[in-house]
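Justification of resources, computational component.

The compute hours requested in this renewal are based largely on the per-chain cost of generating structure records like the one below. Each record pairs the submitted sequence with a full structure-token output. That output is archived, and it is also reused by downstream analysis tasks.
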Amino acid sequence: MLAAKGWSSRKIALELDVDRETVRRYRPAPDSKPAIPPAGSESDSDSNLAIVPTGAKAGRTSQCEPFSATIETGLLAGFSAQRIFQDLVTDHQFTGGYDAVKRFVRRLSRRTELPFRRMECAPGQELQVDFGLGAWVITEGIHGTTRRQVGKIFEEVERPALQPLPASLFPVFEEAQHTVHRDGYVEFKKAYYSAPPEYVGRQVWVRQETRLLRIYNPRREQIALHALDEPGKFTTDPAHLHSRKRHLIERGADYLLDRCRRIGPLTGTWAEGMHQTRGPQSLRVMQGLLQLAEKHPAAALEKAAGLATHHGTWRLRDLIRRTALARCAISTG
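The structure output for this chain reads:
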């Protein structure tokens, strides 16, 4: 009744002390005005008929009309409106916009039924066809900045500027600076590689590649090349063992052998046999033996060296194991 008097929803809510949403929910909806029929509807067709002059076409002629046959061919080939627009711009100097092509394609699609295509090929072959078509569409596209066809730019400008690939793969390497030990070897990742004798005691650069190890002097000149080896292995170039290097090795070996003999006669005998068996590699072993003597009693080392010499074992790890066993036996005895 209040609504019939013309009261607003707000006034009714204040009067009844309720929420305005409650008023709107129960308030009868006002009579709606009749909707204006859209152009072209049956109710409006009689009153809004356009008067077209005799012999003239209704509406504005599309810019795509002269290219109707080309557009229909593209539709039959399954091309999108974007692809058809790109072909018109590239091959037919079309000056219209993409929206005009899209409207024309939409109009043709309503009256052009796409043909039914049979797909008779193996699954892998069908996938290859799709992939090849996709790559071709990309190269035929129009570049957004230059407004030129991507494939033509590549063939005319970019391909001639390409340079041939290198003869080998791009080198991937790990490099570090090391000092040549007085036995003539460089240690790298727990493997040992020979260097020319004139670099004993000097720093060199060691570069590890995929299967090779290169040694460079401070001027970055290559002085040695080796195949990569396993940790603990020694790799020797015979050219690095000329008389001068042998003299340096022998001089260093005499000094180390003399120190090993001071530990005890059995230890000295083992060091001599190991040096004769392992050659230049024995210098590092004798240094390890001297460090071992600082940690274990001479009696235990002597007992272990005697057993190792008897069994002909010339590796330091065997001597360490025997020394530990001998020390335990001495302490328990």
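Strands lie at 174-179, 185-188, 191-194, 203-208, 212-216, 222-227, 234-235. The two ends are 119 Å apart (CA to CA).
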